[in-house]
């Protein structure tokens, strides 16, 4: 990517998905000056714990810690998201508005919350639609082409099969702030040990790569390089 | 990788595998100053066309064009390669001797010449063995850890399933010299149109990525990055 | 298949999908006397280049070159296609109307335009629905059972993993006319080099199989044979 | 294939593999005049029931029923087969000697007897080696290129994943003779109900395809066709 | 599971899916005292044979033989089922109402009736939604967490790839009653030999496992155990 | 399994594989009275740290903590293991001698130490060979059939794709003793943080399943059950 400020759009289905799935990465990006926007496709209305108002407040608090803008899309609400062309277009509108260089969205691995899978599909498709010139309802904003689309896994089960190449991002320097970020979602921590789960996962992913903690992103496209010099480090420790 | 000269070791089963599968990439690397070594695990003794002497001469001519060192390992000869611990160690010895930063080897996709699959496995395993300190028979050279291991596909059929992320290397600027490199293997071009096949493949791989010609490498390990800024371009054209 | 004229229905999401993905095959089929119908699920309304009217005109021009009938289904328009039961039924109606022996539709490989994936699913399902007797809204036409359903890949990325058996169709004798067919879609060639991409792909697919140019179809069902004599040639060249 | 007599070489690891896995197919081929050769890579020396002499006699009896030639390769004996270059060459020698048009061998699905997997690999590789001109130890016979290579599954568990296209061969007319063929292997039927298992499998495979009984072959290569007319029936019943 | 009576909810798309896909298992469960409920997502309105009234009557007759409750969900009718959030919620309501311990639903393998795939997805998602406390429209019933979710395959083609671990359930003692159960669906047996197909499949699945007849279920989640003693028998016969 | 004492044979390539990959499980099994034997296929001769004597001593110390018997097979030594019929037989001899009910061996996932893959294959095959009556060189011991074969993953990368059903074993009550067990391998902990890696992994695997720590086994065969009551708990938490 060029040397300008990188614009990152992270999309989640529920108010806590982004922080759990790639919060440490966003903290690292924020520090190096990337402009970060969060887009949430529900207010977590279906959760056993926390009212939609509480959950929105928790997400806004986390966004503030991140120094990120935040938007809530109304696509019908938690557990009511459909993988439809209309929703593809709604997400494409956000991509255009944010002029995102990098799009982060959940993986589509099937054994997870249906909303995660739907949002994964919406983002994958929206990234294409955002660049087509003939979509009248999107024309408030000019067409826009993202540079990268990576997927994050909200839970360990949502990680794609391990024969796919992934990107480990060293979040060791941001670990405490990432825990703080996750702990913004107090209502969700009442009955599930999400923070423990995510930190154990990040510990395992990091130690495999020779660092203290790492989060992981999954590329959705090939890379084009001019020389092997353009490549980051390979993880070849164990 | 650091800014020092990059040392690349490309391993092939037969005298023409490397030029067909990743010759354009090596030309690009040679130009930017990488030190290149070729290691061939046979002299193509089993081929219908070309004596082993002719084929060795063709390979040496190609190596010269590349400015590369060349070594022939005797592992029993063409069509007689076995995936054995002894052969793993023989390749590991070469890796140590060359102090390779980058190892390039064939893919292990099953529908191809058995020697290609064997050499793929030998290289995958040798890259580990090269770094272990307790292997007496390798001790002429100190243990060595490579930085990257990528696989190249000798034919289109040898490319792994296309849901795996690959690296496209722009070889447009080297296209004519790559053809010249492949044409060193005159004996093999008598009955098979390899050059046509490879250039059509490189054209298709390149146009998909928005360049004139590309060859492709398949990573064997995850990447570790500090920031998304560390990443090369994504191929997102069609 | 029996010796009667074969009826082929090719379905595409956008006005150029069919010509790019299987145009050469249709030219070969037309020559041997097959009756060909094209069914397009949009007018390409979302494209950056070309108005819907221009794109419809381009598709009609290509159909004329093919000697094929052409139908435009209104399923909401380009980028607005949904994988729904209602749309399954709409495609089933076309299958019944055309009394198709062979159905050709896009693959469902996930890394492509969402409309391609949707049309793939619609066709797969419609082929079943067309044969059920109890669907009132389809009863203008009697139930109909197709004989074959094959998928074509609109781009190289849309080809399924290469461990699946595919059918290569020799289109060498039709190459120039196929280029002419693709060039009907002038508006789409302004910013993307589709013709170059498709011809490079067909060249690579053909040379692998020992012919000049080939396109490829992917079966969706097993074959039933009485003897091994019933089988076409295997591609066993490299 | 051309109209001449078809030469089929079926290879098995143990004396009963071929009859169980593709015996009905061979009966149908024999009837239409194909020349059939069986090649067994052991005498079943490791079996709990039946001496090697008894098992060889059973295999010879079955070959006689089939009107097939039979050869026993000595590759070390039952449970002692290795996937080695030397064994690849031994099978290649048989392929050359038999001038096989069609090669039938076991699948390589991993959850089966190790000898089945080894013989699968030997055959896959031998089919290539048979055609290379430079292999001195094979030169008693001139190089030979097979036309087709299909795999058969010795047990239901040995069938590859069902998203791969397979060939169902109608063996209804040969059912009783197939049972007779399998029953030649009396020593093996003492403790395992192989005949029941195979007939239930053939019944299920057949009824799915609309016939009484079928066996199944798995292609190892793409098919090249000139027209869709060249294709056998698709199985599209349920 | 605890020692209390087990509550099983089997969901099907059409009136005969459950009996064909897991009827023998339900008979075995009924005998040991499990409480069984059937939920059908259509009345088979699209079938060539049988009116919706006849088909409902057939299903009720089968339910009576099973001693099972039966419910018909109206989700738009046969061939009109959509994979939507609204339908997920409808199935979740049934799961809550039935307080199911075990949920049985069709597999999502893609080469089958579209309704089977849709119902598979609805059940997978509904099992999650049933346990969330914040879904207003489900609040007539309190949130409910199932203990197990298994998938059954309606046809042999609907079985997932055979490298996935499955559960074989011995239905030998229930075989005749299972045939009787399937034969309740007389309208469907006029043109397709479903009973023959299913019994041949159950025979093959059973003999592989050393019993006379078996049906198969596919787990959707990992198992948690305290000791290896907690595990059922492994199938290790052939 | 029956109520008698369960006999468990765990096989590893190197002296520390078993403790790292399934040590916690073995501790739980030892406590409930299972008889445990360890079989190591090398003395870790190739390691950078620790002499073979030191490593053997570490393994014996760990075996003592486990109350397990321990055997070292000489198959050529660390990094020199081959997947051969002869080695299959050597492992089969150990299975017979130990009269194992349960066999535990490494997974065969390809991105790991070559010895791990070889030992995985040896064990898979040996489990079959152990039960065949006709293998003369094994006849010191009568033929023996194991009841279960499960695979353990030595590193996180060695876990098979997560769409396979796995068994999570709760090792929370054994956590401290497991750490102690791993710490027997002091020479290996000098340069790699294996204990940290394994405990982070067990923490993640456990929290996903609702317990403090878990290790995981991968079944190699289907299960046969009479009733759904025979099944352990499903992991359905997140």
Structure description:
Six copies of one chain form a homohexamer. Chain A has helices spanning 17-31, 52-66, 85-98, 114-129, 175-182, 194-209; strands at residues 7-12, 35-40, 69-72, 102-106, 148-152, 167-170, 214-219, 223-225, 233-234. Chain A is built from six helices and nine strands. The mean pLDDT of chain A is 95. The longest helix of chain A has 16 residues, at 114-129. Chain A is globular, with a radius of gyration of 17 Å. In chain A, strands 3-2-1-4-5-7-6 form a seven-stranded mixed β-sheet, sandwiched between helices. Chain A is α/β, with parallel strands linked by helices. The two termini of chain A are 31 Å apart. Chains in contact: A-B, A-C, A-E, A-F, B-C, B-D, B-F, C-D, C-E, D-E, D-F, E-F. At the A-B interface, helix 1, strand 5, strand 6, strand 7 and strand 8 of A face helix 1, strand 5, strand 6, strand 7 and strand 8 of B.
